[in-house]
Structure formats: C-alpha cells, structure tokens
Amino acid sequence: GTPTALMVGSGIGAERGILIRNGEAVQTLKDIKVIAFDKTGTLTYGKPVVTNIITLLSNEKEILTVAASIEAGSEHPLAHAIIEKAKEEKIKILKVSKFEAITGKGIKGQLEQDFIFVGNRKLMDDEQIDITKIEDQMAELEKEAKTVMIVAKNKKAIGLIAVADDLKPNAKQAILAIEKLGIKTAMITGDNKRTAQAIATKAGISHVISDVLPDGKVDEIKNLQKQYGLVAMVGDGINDAPALKQANVGIAIGTGTDIAIEAADVTLVRGDLETILSAIKLSKAIFKKIK
Ligand code: ADP
Ligand code: MG
C-alpha cells in the first residue's frame, strides 16, 4: 500500500539527495503543471560579485566607501558583494547612524551629515531621486544579467554598482529536462525586469515574474495556480517560506535557510536542481505501482 511504497521511495530519494518531509506532496509531484523558481540562491549561486562601479558625481573610492559603510548593516547577498569588494580595495568602513533596510528596495543610513540611499529604482522613485540620465547605463548592465544598485547621497545619484550572480552550472539542463516532461517553468524574483529576463533567457525559463516584493511571492503562486493548476515552488530564502507553503509542492534548496527547509515538503539536499527530475520520476514510479 501507500505507506510501504512511500517508505521505499523515501529510501531511494535519500540516496539521490532528495529529503521527503511530506509524502502526500510527493504524490502530487507527478501531476504538477508549473515549477516556479526563486532566482537568487536557487537558480544562481546567491553569491553576487561586484563587476562594475560607475562614477557619476564622485570617484570610485567614495562610492565604494559610502556604499560599503551603509551595507555593513545588511545581511543581503548584495551587501556581502559590496563589502567584499571594499575589503579587496582596502576601503575603510565608516560609522553609520539611522541605518534602515527597506525590504525589496535597498537600504538607507546617515554618514555624518550625509543622507545615503543604496538600492533599486523603486527606492529612488520613493525618495524622488532623479535617475533619468543614468537609465541607459543601467539598462546596458541589466541586459548583461547584472543587478545594478544606485548609490545616492543627499538626494543625488553619485554612482552605480553592478553585480553578477552566476547561474548554477546545471540549471539550464534541469530546466530543459523539466520542460521536456511538459511542465512549464517560471521564475519569481524581486529583481528588475531586464536582469530577470536576461537570467531567465540564460536558464531557458519561459515565464518571468519580476519586481515582486517579498510579500508578493504568495500571490504570484496563487495566480499560477488559478491559471495552470498544480504548482511547485523551489526556493532557498526566508522570504520564500510563505510561497513554499502556498505551493502544492514546496521544494527547498538544502544549502538554503532553515526557515525555507522547514516550510518545504521536499528538500534538495545538495541544492542540485537536476534532482528535481529524480523526484518527479520517483513520484511517478512509486504511485504508478500503487494504482
Ligand atoms: P531577491 O531575493 O529576488 O534578490 P529581494 O527582495 O531580496 O529579492 O531584493 C530585491 C531588490 O531590492 C534587489 O534586486 C535590489 O535591487 C534591492 N535590494 C534589496 N536589498 C538590498 C541591499 N541591501 N542593498 C541594495 N539593494 C538592495
Ligand atoms: Mg533566494
């Protein structure tokens, strides 16, 4: 019967690097219509590296000093990238007051008399900081799949910092194989449309949902469910947890946060996206035998 088959399935799954927390979800996996992927840390390594510093109203050293000092208070992977670069360049980190993270947009803080913002277009829009003159430069970098942060001081953009976060090596193969099974793939990200599209194209993902604020991921899963039926979500972050619960099958990346793993039905122990395929095949194998 089902429990025995599941136990055998669990054993085989474990061997293949798939940890099953919820057997019912594994049964659902064989009928899934869409698999939605988080971008950062799921499709990509989640370890962005600074690739470009563009000077607008300042020099490279000041831009990096200001940005790294503010980002020193942030846990975000983008912050790590900037701090690493500052370390490489032997930049001195300055003391910041009134630090505040603005979810899905960036961060702000005060450096002596100066008001600093580091973040995306949404943040600059909120703060009425004009970026029309730098749109073309940003677009150019974003087409290269880079994420661009604007560094602003006292309501003026002083520089841009671009980072790249590479796709995991077998992401493309995994997506291709999933699509071959007739399952649609989607990407959900807080990043901007152009960067999201560039990465999705590299990965072979057809459906891109970008500019999603952290709270919005659940609604995007609900939309996919309305449109297509059974949906699986793959994610690694704290802010993926509610979406992993909303999905019919939540799949966590084993190298991700504990909160995501606890919210998920299945964990890919090694974070290897190709094991999703093994999980689907396993689901089909187990539950065919039962019928
Ligand atoms: P994701 O996990 O898809 O990258 P987030 O909601 O964490 O989505 O971030 C969305 C966007 O908000 C980032 O692409 C970036 O533009 C901006 N952002 C978030 N945190 C920071 C930060 N610490 N510094 C600069 N920009 C940030
Ligand atoms: Mg992530």
Automatic annotation (TrEMBL):
Coiled-coil ranges per the record? Answer: 124-151
Give the source's domain of life in one word. Bacteria
Q: Tell where it localizes.
A: Cell membrane
Per the record, the similarity remark reads: Belongs to the cation transport ATPase (P-type) (TC 3.A.3) family. Type IB subfamily.
Function statement: Involved in copper transport.
What's the protein called, per UniProt?
Answer: Copper-exporting P-type ATPase
Protein's organism: Peloplasma aerotolerans
